[in-house]
């Protein structure tokens, strides 16, 4: 079964996989600005810090985001679309790089989605289920070759005449591996471990009572110790318990007071396609 995850990357470096493999740290100010642009006019609250692996199968009202300087990510289980081209103008507003990539795996509909923009234009998009192609734009990337050649057949749809020569979810996951050095559903021996990529966790919407603590296993700042806190294994035959992952309390967001009269307030920004679909009022 596919994991439930969507990851939107905004890229301003030549090799995102190498950037992640070398170790990345959150830029708090850029991350806050990034989120404000992505979810303008939306009730969104930072509730703690975690790692990108925690975004898999996360709650629909949780968003995992980070700005690393030359690379930014926005991830969550609910950030999906079957028409990546509708995101183009919204991605421009986020102001990070001119190369963008979206990878989405949806187990509920058995859908895989992969899209990549270059210089602000959609270069490649593929969205499909095991038997239906919903979107197919642009020329395939080299990593897609074995999929279209039949090297990754669908075992569950072997006798279905309508079945594609591969599962679109596997293609999308392979795209993430090719571009960012790791996959969410496949190879676990990659050089990049999503559990080592720090992110800030946000709640979209009202308090749901689960903001108490967030677990993190990664250093969150550039001035943090080089070696992050690890759980240690007990010696063989010992009954000693392993040390828990460090718990980081959620930061408290303090709203700024507003005056009664705001004649110069800008008009509200129109919700983006993903936001409209899920009831959010942000730009995505």
UniProtKB/TrEMBL annotation:
Protein name, entry field: Uncharacterized protein
Stored InterPro entries: DUF6928
Superkingdom of the organism of origin: Bacteria
Species in which this protein is naturally found: Gordonia sihwensis NBRC 108236
Positions of region (Disordered): 223-284
């Amino acid at each position: 079964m596919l994991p439930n995850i969507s990851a939107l990357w905004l890229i301003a470096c030549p090799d995102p996989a190498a950037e992640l493999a070398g170790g990345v740290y959150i830029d708090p100010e850029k991350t806050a600005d990034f989120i404000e642009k992505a979810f303008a006019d939306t009730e969104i609250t930072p509730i703690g810090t975690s790692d990108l692996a925690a975004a898999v199968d996360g709650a629909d009202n949780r968003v995992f985001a980070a700005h690393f300087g030359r690379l930014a990510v926005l991830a969550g289980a609910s950030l999906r679309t079957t028409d990546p081209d509708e995101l183009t103008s919204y991605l421009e507003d986020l102001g990070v790089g001119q190369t963008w990539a979206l990878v989405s795996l949806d187990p509920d509909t058995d859908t895989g989605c992969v899209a990549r923009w270059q210089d602000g234009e959609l270069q490649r998009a593929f969205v499909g289920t095991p038997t239906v192609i919903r979107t197919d734009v642009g020329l395939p990337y080299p990593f897609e070759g074995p999929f279209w050649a039949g090297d990754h057949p669908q075992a569950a749809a072997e006798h279905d005449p309508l079945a594609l020569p591969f599962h679109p979810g596997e293609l999308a996951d392979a795209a993430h591996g090719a571009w960012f050095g790791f996959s969410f559903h496949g190879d676990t021996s990659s050089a990049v471990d999503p559990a080592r990529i720090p992110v800030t966790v946000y709640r979209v919407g009202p308090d749901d009572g689960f903001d108490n603590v967030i677990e993190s296993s990664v250093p969150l700042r550039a001035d943090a110790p080089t070696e992050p806190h690890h759980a240690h294994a007990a010696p063989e035959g010992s009954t000693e318990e392993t040390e828990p992952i460090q718990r980081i309390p959620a930061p408290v967001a303090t709203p700024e007071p507003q005056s009664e009269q705001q004649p110069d307030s800008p008009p509200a920004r129109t919700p983006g396609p993903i936001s409209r679909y899920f009831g959010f009022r942000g730009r995505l």
